[in-house]
Amino acid sequence: MQTISDFIIDYEFLSKYDLKSLQQNLLLPFANDTIYTKYFKCLGSNTSNIVEKNLIQYIDVSSSDINFFLSDFKHRYDLFSLSKRAVNSENINHTFIEDFFSLLIKNSIKKRASDIHIESSEFLTTIRLRIDGILKVFFNLDKKFNTIISSYIKMYSNLDIAQRRLAQDGRFNFNFDDEKYDFRVSIIPTILGESIVIRILDNKSVEKNISNLNFSKNILSTLKETIKLTQGLILISGPTGSGKTTTLYAILKELNNNTKKIITIEDPVEYKIKNIQQININDKIGLSFENILKNILRQDPDIILIGEIRDTFSLKIALQASLTGHLVLASIHSNDCVETISRLFDLDADLFLIANTLKYVISQRLILNICQYCKNKKCEKCNFTGFINRSPIVEVLKINKNISSMIYEKQDLEKIREFLQKNKHKTMFDDGMIKVNEQISTLEELQKIIHL
Questions:
Q1: Which of 52, 279, 327, 331 is most buried as measured by Cβ atoms within 10 A of its Cβ?
Q2: Per-residue confidence (pLDDT) for residue 193, from 0 to 100
């Protein structure tokens, strides 16, 4: 079954039509095929108002997709025109590709995208934006455009333009609306061309504190208790993209004052924080994760942030540091609080150290918020999805004497779960239901995240 992402929408052809009429009738003419046949090609939904069906090669798509591709028409028209001119230009330094890239970056920032994906398929160059954790096709362009945009991005990011057989990583920055944005670039070769991902590092994220991240009241209260600790280990768990880094930075911001020395070990450092010593792992020059961890205690830190507990060695250092009077914050990949304990068991750490240093496990996900502009009816503000922005749903496990004892004895995980259930431990689903009952999100979205 064909979808809207299978086609190049010719916005120059589309500009001949009245935009308001197309939006009212949910029609998207995308190509003029009358040179070879009697038809022009048109996308529509089952609610579209189609009169001259005999003149249309009609393809059924969702109404929200039609509205999305008709929205922000001026920018889409400009991007399409610039891409065509770039394909017809022999010089990659030409203003067409420069203007295209600048407009794409600005538009992606406006749409609150976290990542821009530029991909090559058999017949197309596809641009997708990740917005609120979800990838959405934004544009399809000529197949030849992939090589042109790849070369320009490499030049802009100080990468090797001639290298197309190996992966490359780079960075650049961009000023927009009096704000400076940092971007991280990853380019890898595929069998159909290069795949380019540009991560948009919005420095506003690091400015957030735990009070404005939309935690539930009971969770916020518990988090405020954690930052009163002066030593021990706090783990924040969850899969990639669950907001762990944002939460860690928010906690660091609460702890950041002139009376404490804070050191972070990150791979890579994405956001710079004032008054904090941040170390960027660089294996190419020997600045490895292991090397830094061996020497970090000589820096006389009060608080240490380890970007990720990735192996037995990093866990061992974290436990030793937290045992000797330091507060250690770290992230770890696992599904919930109990599975985090299981992950620690798997890393074969000293059970005595875990039982005596681990103070809190915070497990989280991000749930989509109902769009407050349209209340789930779908509008341009939410890119016709019905949702805008995300909120954390969180489970917090305080390691009391009972849990500590169960860890030391390496109790079966089911016994730990049974103990927590008997003691009315609040799960991530419980926190999610608070968001549902407060009409911040929906039960359907919660069930997608928790996988019930």
A1: 327
A2: 93
